Each structure stands twice: as structure tokens, then as C-alpha cells.
Amino acid sequence: MQMQRVNKQQGFTIIELVVVILLLGILAATALPRFIDVTTQAHDSAFEATAGGFTTGTALYRAEWVARGQPSTDTSLASYDGLLVAPGFAADSANYTAATAAPTASVYVQQTAFSGRASGYPYATETVATLAAYDSDDCVAVFSGILQTGAPTIAAATATLDASGDAAAVRTAVETAQTASAADFQAFVRTNVQVNTGFQNNSDVGVAANASGAARNHQQNAPACIYAYSAESENNNRFILYSPWNGRVASYTSAADLYTAMTTFDGPAVP
């Protein structure tokens, strides 16, 4: 009598399936946050690399200007896509008497008629007649000229950050700019960032009481470029601040820190 062989097909038991599901759940709980963090870390690295490259680029630009003898005329460095050297400040003779009083105003020296010293830092590819005429397109020119080939994409924001009353308003302005452009960075201008003009005061007449009569440097509002990183739409807290008039470059990972920096005098403390 021939025995018939029966093949039995075995599957997973309920216990085995439960174990597999539990393992998949554990892996998802531990691995997914890491993948999410990798995305944020990649954006952090991209921003930091851009900020570092921009800082280095502006320093190299000024080094080339120094190597040329620090010219105080209309100077264009072709190696940086024709970026012009920013002029410095000159005392307003109608409002400034060096020996007796502080200036009540300090005027911008136009690019076409230097009578003060240049800052040595780039500010535009076109001659800008007044501080008020400086805009976000000029900031885009600086960004592109300094970083050159391979630079992140950038767009000029139509609004300034002047009306931003706090950190939340800064983030809102960036979000609004993102809807108009998908660029990696949005270029803003804030026209009233306080800078050190380099002119010394012998008193604080018209500025503040100074009983000691000790000297300090005069401050003035001037436009500065704000480059907001917008490639990560959920995070609007990465910024580069650049002032062409004194070469100030700083990066921030908080809108609150940026807002404080924009409204704080960048110069020697009052004695």
C-alpha cells in the first residue's frame, strides 16, 4: 500500500505577528524623529555654510581694497561682479562743530563725491545717491557678488523690516515674502539700523547728557541688509545681518535676537 505524502504549509502564529508589529512600532518611534531631525540639521548646515561664506567673502573683499591702497574714490572690484566700495560718513558742517558740540546730524557721503573715507566693504553694483535710496535689490547684488557661482538662490523682498514691531512681525514678513518667491533666501532692508559713524563727539549736546564730557563716537541710522533663510518653510528663524557702512556681519537663529540686533547701537558704549 502506497502512503500518500501530505505537504503541510505553515504560516505565522498570532504571537509572531504581534512581535513583528511591536518591533516595527518601536523602530518607527525611534527612527522617524531622527529622519525629521536630519532634515532640520541639513537646513542648519546650509544656512551656516552660507553665513560663513558670506562673512569670509566680505573680509576678502575688504582685504583686496586694502591691498589696492584703500582708495577713497568710486572703486569697483571686478573680481566680485563689479561691487562698489561703500562710502563712509562725513560730518555735516551745518550741524557739527568738532571742538564744542556733538553733531545733530551726520550726512552720507555720496559715491560720486567722496570727502570722507570709504568703508572698504561692498554695498551695490550701482551708485546709490542717498541712504534712503538703498534697497533690497542692492542687498541681492551684494549677496550674489560675494558668494558668486553656486550661491543659494535669493530674491528681493518688496517690503522693508522697518515696521516690524517685534520678533513675530519679523517672521510674518518672511512668511509673506515666501509666498511671492521660492528662493532659498529673501533679502530685506531695514533702513534704521544704528551704526557707528567713526566721528568722535566731545560732548553729547543734542544727543544725551554727558556730565563727564568724555568723547564717544556718534551714531546714525543707516540701512542694513537682512538675509532671511526661507528654504525651510516651517522655520523662519535664520538670518544674516550685513551693514555695508562698517562691515558688520552677524548671523542669528532667532527672530528675537535679530530684532534686538536691529534696534541696538553697534558701537562704543556711552561713557
From TrEMBL:
Transmembrane segments: 12-32
Region forming the signal peptide: none
Domain of life: Bacteria
Alphabetical UniProt keywords: Membrane, Transmembrane, Transmembrane helix
Pfam families: N_methyl (PF07963)
Protein's recorded name: Prepilin-type N-terminal cleavage/methylation domain-containing protein
Species for this entry: Pseudohongiella acticola
Phylogenetic lineage: Bacteria, Pseudomonadati, Pseudomonadota, Gammaproteobacteria, Pseudomonadales
